[in-house]
Specification:
heterotrimer; A mainly alpha (86); B mainly alpha (169); C mainly alpha (117); A: 86 residues; mainly alpha; two-stranded antiparallel ribbon; 3 helices; 2 strands; C: 117 residues
Chain lengths: 86, 169, 117
């Protein structure tokens, strides 16, 4: 089965838009370190494998749009998250 | 500190427990990703723009409730809310106007082209890259998802700031 | 003076009611000939060739104009909530000092309102 690439691109774009408002480090409050991001990605892979082929595309046994949305959120937060303070 | 804790819910200051502060942001990110998945599976699975947008708004609202409106990591500014709301409505109306232009009826599904009255290049542009023949329906889902996510978040952001106003006065 | 205005208003309302009811009865008369259930049968039969989820097909493809109105209802609800509970105070200058020039404008409006009160 060929990998359905269109919904993954849409998920990355949508996650980029929402994730560009998330800053992972805020003084006097918390800091979301690299290890936490790695743990989040591992948990997301586990969760997408448990979700199964949620949009039923029959290409991979994981929810590909969910993983793409996580990647998009983290990407947008890393690139534009520091400028999000109003 | 004891005086402040008597005021039920104290929105302005971040007085959450460390457990909540540690877990709220990853749970918010996962809720946002689940909402995006629900939006993008709207034409195949149960769900759609409204439901997925409500899930994303739930993630943002959860982060605001735990960290407070000042310390929340997901800050939606005035410009961002304005832009997303406008983009969502404009995308919906413009997708409808494309159908009005090429097929003669508003919101005609130019991607699926049910009656074969649209030129082939227009169908090729607006066809969703998918195994189904959904046409413009996923794009409409995305537009409605943007609108709902911003609209439901705006109410909670505004209410938390109203509470801060009441405390100052 | 006010009685005259009231009578003119009642007269205009009567005319508008007559026009509306006439248009409504004219639309209802012979309404059975206007109904064509064919599009519903078409969507029930071949709708799943467009997309598998029938509910989304009805909501976004068949009744897309209705969904546009629904999403505008949500916008209107949020707008009314902000208007009723906010009264222009949400962009106050001293509370939200890092905001843009819109804040200063609404802060000036609020000061005027307070002076009037």
């Amino acid at each position: 089965m060929a990998l359905v690439i269109g919904p993954m691109i849409a998920a990355v774009l949508f996650g980029f838009v929402v994730g560009s408002r998330i800053h992972l480090k805020l003084e006097h409050s918390f800091e979301f370190t690299l290890g936490a991001i790695i743990a989040l990605v591992i948990f997301a892979i586990f969760m997408s494998w448990n979700l199964g082929q949620f949009p039923f595309y029959n290409d991979l046994p994981i929810a590909t749009t969910f993983l793409s949305a996580i990647v998009g959120i983290l990407l947008g937060s890393a690139l534009l998250g520091k400028n999000a303070q109003e | 500190m004891a005086e402040d804790s008597k005021r039920t819910p104290n929105w302005g200051q971040t007085e959450s427990t460390p457990v909540l502060k540690l877990t709220a942001l990853p749970v918010s990110i996962i809720m946002i990703a689940l909402g995006i998945m629900t939006i993008l599976g709207g034409h195949i699975t149960p769900g759609g723009g409204f439901q997925g947008g409500a899930m994303i708004a739930g993630g943002i609202i959860f982060s605001i409730l735990v960290y407070g409106i000042d310390g929340t990591p997901i800050k939606l500014s005035h410009k961002f809310i304005n832009a997303l709301e406008s983009i969502g409505a404009l995308a919906y109306v413009c997708l409808g106007l494309v159908g009005l232009l090429f097929a003669g009826s508003f919101l005609y599904n130019v991607g699926a082209d049910f009656y074969n009255i649209v030129p082939a290049y227009v169908t090729a542009i607006f066809h969703y890259p998918d195994v189904t023949n959904a046409g413009i329906v996923p794009y409409l889902n995305l537009a409605v998802g943007l609108k709902v996510l911003v609209g439901l978040s705006t109410v909670v952001i505004a209410f938390s700031q109203f509470k801060k106003l009441g405390d100052d006065e | 003076m006010s009685d005259k205005i009231e009578s003119i208003r009642a007269f205009m309302m009567a005319i508008a009611t007559i026009l509306f009811s006439a248009a409504l009865f004219d639309a209802i008369y012979g309404f059975k000939n206007l109904i064509q259930p064919g599009i519903s049968m078409v969507y029930n039969a071949v709708g799943t060739q467009i997309e598998p989820n029938m509910v989304t097909l009805v909501v976004f493809d068949w009744r897309g104009f209705d969904t546009l109105g629904e999403s505008l209802i949500l916008v209107t609800a949020v707008l009314v909530v902000l208007l009723i509970f906010g009264k222009g105070k949400i962009l106050d200058n001293k509370l939200n000092s890092a905001n843009n020039d819109l804040a200063a404008q609404s802060g000036a409006d609020e000061l005027n309102i307070e002076e009037e009160e």
